[in-house]
Amino acid sequence: MPSDPRHESADPAAIQPGDIVWLDARHLTPTRGDGGRTWPHYGICLYHHYKGVLPDLIVSGTVFQFVCISSVTKSNPFDPARQVLLDHSDSNLGLDGPSAACVDFAPSVLVTVEGKRHVLAGVRRLTHPVVRRVPASPTLQAIAALFQNYWTAVARKTGQE
Amino acid sequence: MKLKKPSPRRKSRNLKAKKSPTTAAAKKTSKASGTAPTDPTPEEIAARRAVARTFFDATSAAAARAAFLSRQQGMLDDAQ
Predict the structure, then answer these.
(1) How far apart are the first and last CA of chain B?
(2) Inter-chain residue contact B52 with A54, CB threshold 8 Å
(3) What ipTM is given for this predicted complex?
(4) Do residues B31 and A124 lie in contact, with contact meaning Cβ atoms separated by under 8 Å?
(5) B62 membership: H or E segment, kind and range
(6) How far is the C-alpha of A27 from the C-alpha of B50, rounded, in Å?
(7) What is the pLDDT of residues B13-54, one digit of tens each?
(8) CB interface of A with B, residues 55-84, below 8 Å
(9) Which of A53, A128, B23, B58 has the fewest Cβ atoms surrounding its Cβ within 10 A?
(10) Rounded to a whole number, what is the distance in Å from the CA of A24 to chain B's nearest CA?
(11) Number of neighbouring beta carbons within 10 Å of residue A43
């Protein structure tokens, strides 16, 4: 964990879809339990978007979409309707035990300006010993497909479509 | 003069001493799968970007963002 999480920020241009990052608790709003605060989580970047499109250039206000990684335990069992299992034996993911990407636990972080550079405040890239990430196929595909289905259904229900 | 052949034990000790901290960390991380972690290649990054382009959908992205902002607002309201 960083020494001072309040000042943790990542270069948005360095974060690619599928990268696993550390997300400060300030970005996280739990979807289960009593709805209180939670602790920092690892998250997977899905994409970044701006005004409804995937831009080539990153500007202030660009939204980075993440899905959080949760441990799969007896008290928190795998839910295929909202989660994609991750291969914790894949050393590129750097996970300690059974885990899943939760598409309903999906924080988004805005690009801001700090000094003269664009930053994602409260986000840290994980690059030791290598860039931690999920593979494009099948993992990122499965997460992105489930995310799209899940949130399209929510949009239909709430009349956002 | 015939030189004495170095013992295999000594040779392996020298190799151990040359290991970098990065190699040691990589070995530790790879314990579960038996394969060492690798840095992403440009092709791999391109493949992950292609997945993002394929599955990006403005409606679902907006719904996720709206739900996230609504939960954050709820937390702020509870705190006040």
Answers:
(1) 88
(2) yes
(3) 0.87
(4) no
(5) helix B58-79
(6) 26
(7) 544 444 445 444 444 444 556 688 999 999 999 999 999 999
(8) 63, 65
(9) A53
(10) 14
(11) 26
